[in-house]
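User: Show me a protein chain along with its predicted structure.
Assistant: Here is one chain, sequence first, then structure tokens.
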Amino acid sequence: MAQAGYKQFCPVAMAAEVLCTRWTLVLMRELIAGSTRFNELRRGVPKMSPTLLSQRLKDLEEAGIVARKPLPSQKGGFEYHLTPAGRDVRPVVEAMGMWGQKWVESSLSLKNLDPSLLMWDMRRNLNPAPLPRIRTVVQFLYSDLPASKRDWWLVIDPDGDVDLCWSDPGFEVDLYVSTDLRTMTAIWMGLTTVERESESIDLTGNRVIASSMQTWLGLSPFAGGKKRVP
């Protein structure tokens, strides 16, 4: 990669030269989670500029970690897939995530609130099994955000596919979830639960869907990690 480097033969230093440039590990998190297209990756790293995203993908391709493949039946589009070397990075990313879940102070994490990233990851990790075998629509309303970022919809199809909408999809809503972004983020991180935050969350609509929210809600893959005891 185009950087000065550590100029050490140590494998840790050599791996750091490839993986520890700004945004690279976060981008690897998205690739490991299954995002393959440029716009999907952008939604997973919304604060990363398109130019830098393109550069990091190029760097990872040159390092043999990502392979770029043309999209079938489309002109000019590509998918990005992990190579065997890229797939071997999974335990590294998972270990860093579990370390961060355990040792990074929760109050610091909760300063970096981002509704688009939160909802994108909730969509990706949602468990449709407890939901009815019909199309289910859940609208999230974040009372503390401006109107342009306040409303989000998750549309779960009977086959389990989940779509995230930031404008009204036009379907009848089965459950309204009204809360603030910090509370929802803390639940997503596994720092608390829907039941514990019952006074901060207003659930309106289908009672069965509401009562099972903790089981179908898409939590962080690191939510099961235990925080250290001070």
